[in-house]
Amino acid sequence: MKQIEMAVIGAGPAGLGAAVEAAGHGVRVVVFDENNKPGGQLFKQIHKFFGSKEHLAGIRGFRIGAELLAQAAELDIDVKLGAVVYGLFSDRQIGIVHQGVKRLYQAEAILLATGAAENTLSFPGSTLPGVMSAGAAQTMANVHRVLPGKKVLMVGTGNVGLIVAYQLLQAGARVVALVDAAPRLGGYAVHAAKLRRAGVPLRLRHTIVEVRGKETVERAVVAEVDENFNPIKGSDEILSVDTVCLAVGLSPLTELAWMGGCRFKYLPGLGGHIPVHNQNMLTTSPGIYIAGDIAGVEEASTALEEGRLAGTAIAERLGYLSFEQAKVKKEAIRSRLDQLRTGPFGAKRKSLKETLVKEWI
Amino acid sequence: MVTGKDTGYSGTGRPSARRMESGPVAVIECIEEIPCNPCEGACPVGAIQVGQPLTNLPKLSEHKCTGCGICIAACPGLAIFNIDLSRGDETAIVAMPYEYLPLPKEGAAVTVTDRDGQPVGRGLVHSVKRMEKYDNTAIVSVEVKKELADIVRSIKEGEDGTEETNLPLRRDY
Ligand SMILES: Cc1cc2nc3c(=O)[nH]c(=O)nc-3n(C[C@H](O)[C@H](O)[C@H](O)COP(=O)(O)OP(=O)(O)OC[C@H]3O[C@@H](n4cnc5c(N)ncnc54)[C@H](O)[C@@H]3O)c2cc1C
Ligand code: SF4
Ligand code: SF4
């Protein structure tokens, strides 16, 4: 069994942010990610981010990812790719399968930054090739440069649905429509405005009922829904599409936190069961920290800041920062997080996050 | 369905008609309180103010604004345009962020569309600006009939790039 100081699981913005922060203070960090490329969601995100300068606003997501990787390389952070963490055992032992070989590590501090998985929907025809998650379509288009289809129906008008629909337009697909069962747009109006300017219909109070096709998607049936989200009879409409993308929310990937004995709270507004954590991102299990979407689904910018917060707290825990030094740094990061959690979208998340912190004692 | 023919947004990001008549000026159509402020930092003359909290809507100081267009490419929401009504009685220039390929060609006639992507007429591509700091957001300016200046917010390119325009436009570029 190998001993390490700080283990980071997940090389997305949260994990990389924490690794860079902690390593910058002298902590020896090992990062594990199951993918063959680090960066988590960032490398699919070809759009410019919101926020302020401190949050790297106006910069395209993949450039933020590249910058984080460059910093990680400069700090000699050991990033192990193709490394699936399959278990978290007593005394902070972690089980890993790395390039086919099983290994056990023991860490003084662990950061779980595993992100979230996309939710799915089932309906007749939902198993036909051509029905996929929005994130999958985004990976195909932006990372592998393969157009998933030519005529796309997007289900969901949250930021993921809006952004991916726009990116599919940029990639050369036609987005036939976006549907959302809710009466209101889920994401930002400025993202929706880009689609509207391109003439893409956004249909609220509509859902997907069925997908038809012999071997792949050929048509999608959409219908209007009533207040209880049940399709209204006779409102069916058949759209000719070859791809159906589902952007119906994300659920935190919390298996390792369950194994680690962390206490949870169910908060649907943050994506489901979330590990309770304190202001330092510490869970109820000693030495196990969380950051990013696992700590409540938000955004890449909040994930990065939470990672930095956890990285600072871990550096303090391991004795690389004094209480006073850490305090100043943590305060600065928390105030940047607060800035991101304002306004009609952010304020709700902020109060939910505060609920989590209150539960921790 | 989200439609509705809005003719424009009111609010703190909108210059007066008088200011538009005096030359190009930014028109900020950012209407929702999101935590964001790159526009503020990008403006070289400090004509845009967001301040704290970050969710404040951007406020334009129309007399400071020189119409340089830098904020158009800096806005991640692609929510800023420039309008120039100073060209006389017939046409106006609308500058917009554009992130599709191929880019339109300068001098080409294009279909111009409104905020809902509906065609509202024809226009001439006046300029296509790309700069490294724009990071692949081009700024496309189109010349349109003056009464369309506050309606046109996008273009549709087709095979009709060479088609004759039905607008009374000067081809002076
Ligand atoms: C389509 C889309 C568009 C988005 N647009 C924006 C946007 O415009 N602005 C914004 O701020 N945010 C945006 N977000 C949200 C943002 O991507 C996420 O909030 C952010 O990536 C979360 O960061 P993270 O580090 O927590 O997780 P991730 O980026 O998901 O990274 C987690 C990593 O952990 C790895 N992992 C998980 N489990 C294991 C395991 N057991 N072993 C090893 N590795 C593991 C995963 O493979 C992944 O690489 C978007 C998200 C999506 C899906
Ligand atoms: S057009 Fe130029 S001067 Fe005017 S607000 Fe934008 S950046 Fe500032
Ligand atoms: S940069 Fe764009 S989206 Fe952000 S506040 Fe300014 S106008 Fe709004």
From TrEMBL, chain A:
FAD/NAD(P)-binding domain boundaries: 6-307
Pfam families (alphabetical): Pyr_redox_2
Species this chain originates from: Metallumcola ferriviriculae
Keywords: Oxidoreductase
Name used for this protein in its record: NAD(P)/FAD-dependent oxidoreductase
Molecular function terms, GO-annotated: oxidoreductase activity
From TrEMBL, chain B:
UniProt KW Iron-sulfur keyword: yes
InterPro entries hit by this protein: 4Fe4S_Fe-S-bd, 4Fe4S_Fe_S_CS
Recorded GO MF terms: iron-sulfur cluster binding; metal ion binding
Domain 4Fe-4S ferredoxin-type: 56-86
Keywords: Iron, Iron-sulfur, Metal-binding
Region (Disordered): 1-20
Domain of life: Bacteria
Record carries keyword Endoplasmic reticulum: no
SUPFAM superfamilies in the cross-refs: 4Fe-4S ferredoxins
Protein name (database record): 4Fe-4S binding protein
